Each structure stands twice: as C-alpha cells, then as structure tokens.
Amino acid sequence: MTDLSEKSIRANCPHCNHHSFALNHVLKTTENFLVVCDGHPLTQGHILIIPKAHLSCIGEYAPNLLGEFVGLYQRTKRFIESVYGSVSTFEHGIVGQTVFHSHIQMFPYAGPPEAIIPEGDRCFEPIPDISALRGIYKRDGRYLFFSIGRALWIADPSIGVPGFFRERFGKALGNEVRSDWKRMHDNEALMEEGRADIGRLVRAWQAYHRNPHLPQEDRLRS
Question: What is the pLDDT of residues 74-132, one digit of tens each?
Fold first, then answer.
C-alpha cells in the first residue's frame, strides 16, 4: 500500500518522482512544467500544473519560470472553460499544503467567492493577476490563492489549515466525499469514479487539441 503519511511525502516527494501515482496521467510536458490529471479529482476536468524543479509555490518561481508558467496557466484555463463551461484555480502558497511541491489546481467551478470563504470579504482581497503572487510571497512569506472565472484573490493565511481549499471547493461542488485525497485513495469506489473522470478528461483534452473549435458537447462525447 502506498505510504501517504506526511513523513513519507516529505521524504519522497510524489511530484519529483516521475513514477509516482501523482504523475500517472500527464497531459503535456514543457521545458519546466508538467500538466497532469489530478489522480484524486474533485470533479471531472481537475488538472494540476507542476514545476519540474522542487519549488514550494508560485511565489518562489524565478522571473523566467514565472513567464513560462503564466502562459501555460492561461492556456489551461481556456481549455477548462471552453470544454466544461467554467474554471477555478487555487494554490496554497505553503499554507496548508499536504504535498510540499508547488502544484496549481484547476477545475470547473462557478460560484461566489463567499462560497469558498464564508468568513466574509474581510478575509480575502483581489489581486490583479497571478504574477502578483511572487511579490506577495516575497513580502509575507506565504499566501492562500484562489480564482473563480477571471477574478483572482488571496485569502487571509491565518484561516488556512491542511487541505484548506480542497475541502472548501469540494463542499461547494457538492463532492465533499472526495475532499480528503488520502481517504479517497483508500476508497476503491471513489477511486473508480475518479479513474472514469480522468479518462473523460484525457479524451476531452485530446479532442480539444485536435480541434479547438469543436463544440463543447462533442469534445465531452469523444
């Protein structure tokens, strides 16, 4: 059985080991990044962007790496929005991480930010673009980042706990049962659902990149 303890994850980073479960379904490889299907998807269309270098978060990216990432991030957002009709993203920015290697989570979701941060707007603030995270990390040493559609925010890091955004987006998606990825990993019925979602995502990705102008329903049917 895979050891998913924090001690094991810290010692054996699943995002550095290219034979790990986390990297079983690679959609795209660039010079410095992998785009992969989340192995424990919250919902169909759940994608991770992972730097090949062991960096803790976007805030640590060097300027040239950040430039490559931003382009890849925008293209992946367009794919998810085009195929699934909506897109949201998050990254813990070292607050509440359960895997200690930067991984930006992207998936279909549309709803008000208050559904994710019910503590109220005093606990989150808008940022102009994802590149701003580098300056915020340099200033504060941490952040909690999320986006819904084209709006981006940082949340008050003092409210962050392990798995913070995954739990909250899982609840907002009506899929709390998949919120804890470690528990999901040990539940064969949930993993079977996840594998089916991954298969549909892979086919949608391939169909989209063969023909970006294909109607949404045709991509999902491919």
Answer: 999 999 999 999 999 999 999 987 778 899 999 999 999 999 999 998 999 999 999 99
Contact 101/54 with Cβ under 8 angstroms?
yes
**Amino acid present at 62:** A
Residue 19 exposure: Cα atoms within 13 Å on the Cβ side: 2
Q: How many Å apart are CA 154 and CA 143, to the nearest integer?
A: 7
Contacts of 110 (CB under 8 A, 6+ apart): 85, 86, 88, 148, 149
Tokens of residue 25, six digits: 């379904």
Q: From the CA atom positions of the chain, what is the Rg in Å? A: 16
Backbone angles phi, psi at 147, to 5 degrees: -140, 155
Q: Which CATH homologous superfamily contains domain 6-204?
A: HIT-like (3.30.428.10)
